[in-house]
Design brief:
The protein is α+β, with helices and mostly antiparallel strands. It has helices at about 5-10, 20-70, 80-95; strands at about 100-105, 115-125, 140-150.
Length: about 150
């Protein structure tokens, strides 16, 4: 005869069986491995998104500085080399390389007219080194600034 107080806490008199510890241990290991893989994937995704955002902010800053430089340059030409060098120097300090820098305007350039400066950097994922060929991640990041010519 089972004591009702003991049977409620232990469960052995009510027909409950205890599971084997080896079965639970193996299931916990599999669940832990799946959760670890999922958390690692989420963490790497957040890291890559942060890197892309940082690169986009850097290229936006470089393009803005190039446009500010172009707007005060007295002898500005289309796709001016000095503006291109200014943008490439800022990007180079951050370890980036511009794949395209454009200075666009409608000639003849008069004071108060609009200048458009556009630059592009290709963002490559750190994880691309671990992926098979053809699966590499390359995202073009483009920044564009429009400003008035003041020279």
């Amino acid at each position: 005869m089972c004591n009702p107080l003991i049977s409620l806490t232990l469960g052995h008199c009510m027909g409950f069986r205890k599971a084997k510890r080896t079965t639970l241990r193996g299931a916990a290991a599999v669940e832990g491995a799946l959760i670890f893989a999922l958390l690692l994937l989420i963490t790497l995704g957040i890291y890559e998104a942060g890197r892309a955002w940082l690169d986009y902010n850097i290229i936006t800053h470089a393009t803005r500085e190039g446009a500010r430089f172009a707007s005060t340059r007295p002898s500005l030409t289309a796709n001016d080399g000095a503006v291109r060098n200014k943008i490439n120097n800022i990007l180079g300090d951050a370890g980036l390389t511009a794949t395209m820098v454009e200075v666009l305007f409608t000639p003849p350039l008069q004071t108060g007219e609009m200048i458009r400066v556009r630059s592009r950097v290709i963002f490559t994922s750190v994880l691309s080194g671990f992926l098979p060929p053809g699966w590499q991640v390359a995202i073009p990041l483009t920044a564009e600034v429009v400003t008035r010519y003041e020279a």
